Input
Amino acid sequence: MASILGDKSRAVMLWNLLDGRAYTATELATCANISLQSASNHLKKMITANILSVEKQGRHRYFKFANDEVAQVIESMAGLISLNKEFKKLKKPKINGFTYARTCYDHLAGEVGVKITNSLLENGIIEISGKDYKVTKSGEKWFGNLDVNIYVIRLKKRSFASQCLDWSERKHHLAGALGASFLEKMIEKDWIRKKANSRELTITSNGKAELKNRLNLEV
Output
């Protein structure tokens, strides 16, 4: 770990990854002010050392910490690393209606999608299971109160509850059959409304109140 952090370029890339988001090799090369080839070599070494993991999403490959424990170690050691104050910190895309709430195929994405998924995790409604999510016993009851039938959804010939990496948030949101059914139910209950000829979604005042009441979440 110390030898990995001993390289300035790798230290800068890892420092950027501490915001919890995932980044492409091109973005990490830019922040470290090195070539894409050089960045790729550094990333390969960090993957081999089990510091980072890579996830394919469409045409892109996104890099992030292999697990929370690694991120904690990096964060604790970061104070010992002498970083140039002028290094390029990567920024999230500018917030607008589309990055705030939108559909990703047939499920909810954007800032709201990630926030709801995190709240489902924090409230013990779903749990991470490898690259997917699983619904807890209390979660089955929670979804049942929304008329989302977990048992019927499990019978569908598709992924039940998968993790989908959000391109604007660079964190996971709930996808799969459960994500699609959940969004469909939120639209049916007028928590969320679709915008005409757009993937952008609007969170209604009723939706904000329900999310606050059911998940203690403010959006």
Notes: The first strand starts at residue 52 and ends at 57. Strands lie at 52-57, 60-65, 102-104, 107-109, 126-129, 132-135, 163-165, 172-174, 192-194, 201-203. DSSP finds eleven helices and ten strands in the chain. The radius of gyration is 19 Å.
